[in-house]
Design goal:
The protein has helices at 15-24, 45-48, 52-63, 83-103, 134-160, 178-188, 199-202, 208-215, 231-237, 264-276, 294-313; strands at residues 2-6, 29-33, 68-73, 107-110, 164-168, 192-196, 219-224, 226-229, 253-256, 282-285. The chain is of the alpha/beta class. Keywords: Isomerase.
Length: 320
């Protein structure tokens, strides 16, 4: 396996400086944001798509440092009930897939999206329970009328460009757990898989190790981000927490740098289990720790994971 970083972490630097930062930390790969929620600080897929000189500069910037691009990320909501939002996110996705082909990158990361509750909606509507029965009616409409047709079309489009899609499971979108990830893959195409991020699973009460085993070869890419569960706040309010991420003391969970939510044993087990199911790609550091600075969180994650991957490569596996 290789260790990389979701380079939007260093969006305040230009591409070359951000690559130098990643290289100095001993990383071998970068994941580039190209639109949607990750923004376009380093790469704007729509702007550079037909600019061969700009594409060559991106390639050279990465290649000259002995690094690779693990994926292009364009997280968005192409199923949004606001047609203008949906179109913008869809156009970003299309441009990113086409750019991936030109860069020789085989993986594009995004969200599944979430529609509204009907054709008359203004905002996305995420169903979290089966009763009253109206919710199940909404859910089936969202899947059968919106999500499956859309992703079948995108699956075919991506095949033409030699690109696969790694859907990141996240609450608020139709694909948020193992079952929904596998459903989309089964019904829309096997070139649709998963960007595996354990931080989004922890706070839902899921076991990421078991999820890796169930997802198996549908895992196309991996994020390294941790979650700290606050036992008291969760005991009082459960995990469906809508308080601002900055309200750390009162939230049921917060995102943390790897090793600050779960111990060494978990991360050793995760790396080994990924290997056991055949994953030999990049583990990409994502930093959303509200307690640590960018540099502190990144440095600690890089040092921690570099040690684990070196040991794993040497055969010191932590068997699941």
């Amino acid at each position: 396996m290789k260790l990389g970083v979701f380079l939007v972490l260093f969006g305040q630097q230009d591409l070359e400086a951000a690559l130098d930062t990643a290289k100095a930390a001993g990383l071998e790969a970068v994941e580039l944001g190209c639109g949607g929620f990750p923004g376009t600080a380093h790469v704007n897929a729509r702007e550079v798509l037909n600019d061969e000189a700009a594409i060559a500069r991106i390639k050279n910037a990465v290649d000259s440092r002995g690094m690779t691009i693990s994926a292009l990320s364009v997280h968005g909501n192409p199923l949004h009930p606001d047609a203008s939002v949906a179109k913008s996110d869809h156009d970003d996705f299309v441009a990113t897939v086409q750019l991936a082909e030109k860069l020789g990158v085989d993986t594009v990361i995004t969200f599944s999206g979430c529609p509204g509750e009907s054709e008359n909606s203004k905002y996305p509507s995420w169903v979290t329970c089966p009763w009253p029965p109206d919710f199940l009616t909404v859910l089936e409409w969202q899947w059968n009328e919106i999500a499956i047709p859309y992703w079948k079309e995108q699956s075919a489009f991506c095949r033409k460009h030699g690109v696969r899609v790694a859907i990141e499971s996240h609450p608020g979108f139709l694909v948020y757990n193992t079952e929904t990830a596998l459903r989309l893959r089964r019904e829309a195409g096997d070139n649709i898989g998963v960007n595996f991020d354990p931080s989004h699973l922890f706070w839902q009460g899921m076991d990421p190790i078991e999820c890796v085993k169930a997802l198996s070869d549908s895992i196309f890419h991996v994020h390294a981000k941790d979650t700290k569960i606050d036992a008291r706040n969760t005991a009082l309010n459960g995990v469906l927490d809508t308080k601002h991420y900055g309200d750390i003391l009162n939230r049921s969970f917060v995102f943390r740098t790897v090793g600050y939510g779960h111990d060494d044993e978990f991360w050793k087990n995760l790396v080994s289990t990924l290997r056991l199911v055949g994953y030999d790609g990049v583990i990409s550091i994502e930093h959303e720790d509200g307690i640590m600075s960018v540099n502190e969180g990144f440095t600690k994650a890089a040092n921690f994971l570099n040690g684990l991957i070196l040991k794993e490569s040497a055969g010191e596996m932590w068997w699941a």
